[in-house]
Amino acid sequence: MRGAAMGLALGLALAFGMGRNAAALEGSGVLLQALDKVTARVTTLEVALDRPVRYGTLEITARRCFKRSPEESPESAAFLDIREIREGEAPHQLFTGWMFASSPALSALEHPVYDVWVKDCLNVKSSDDSAPR
């Protein structure tokens, strides 16, 4: 598990250009879009960090969201936990990991009914900011 965490940290550092002069911006939530493939309905979801949101049978929990500064090429990434919850059954973990707004297919939820992808971070601030959350 430690190797996976280090890999994620390295991936974020490369994706967000850490080590360069610009600082990443951290959001207090995530703007997602979800598609119900049966009805072809697209829904926009605003998900606060660590507060689960239901979409159909899915329970989506956003853990972190980072965005590049405006001076750099656009990119937002969110760490999501997505579980399927059906009545009378134990919850089933479908996805845990980073999703990138610019490359939704790179790390995607694989589900026969639903697609979920990251659009942006909400209420962003500098990750260097020492103000209380």
Describe the structure.
The protein has 133 residues and is mainly β. The chain has one domain. The chain is built from one helix and nine strands. It has one helix at 2-16; strands at 25-26, 29-36, 41-48, 53-55, 58-67, 76-84, 92-100, 114-122, 125-126. Strands 1, 4, 5, 6, 7 and 9 form a six-stranded antiparallel sheet that branches. The chain has a three-stranded antiparallel sheet with strand order 3-2-8, with no helix packed on it. The longest helix is centred in the first third of the chain and has 15 residues, at 2-16. It is globular.
Identify the overall geometry. globular
- Count of separate DSSP helical elements: 1
Summing up helix and strand content along with how strands pair, one would put the structural category as: mainly beta
Main sheet attributes: strand count, strand direction, barrel closure: 6 strands, antiparallel
The portion of residues forming beta strands comes to: over 45%
The helix content, as a percent range, equals: 10-25%
Record field, number of beta strands: 9
Which series of helices and strands comes N to C?
Answer: HEEEEEEEEE
Low-confidence stretches: 1-7
Straight-line distance between termini: 28 Å
Q: From the alpha-carbon coordinates, what is the Rg to the nearest angstrom?
A: 15 Å
Work out the count of structural domains: 1
Summarize model confidence as the mean pLDDT: 83
